[in-house]
Amino acid sequence: MMDLWGYRIAATLQQLKELQQYSKQPDIDLNATCPILDGSNIAGVTINIAASLIEELDLESSKIQINTLRRISLFGGKMSQFFQEIEQLSRRFEEDLRKRKFLFVSPDLHQLWGKKDAFGLGNKFKDAQEDIEEAGNCLAVAQGTACVFHLMRAMESAVQTLSGELNMTVTHKTPWRVLTTGMDGKIKKLPDSTEPEKQKKNAWEEACVNLHHVGSVWRNDTMHPAKSYTPSQALEIFNAVKVFMLSLAKL
Question: In order of start, what are the domains of the chain with their CATH numbers?
Answer without folding.
Answer: 6-98 (no CATH), 110-249 (1.20.120)
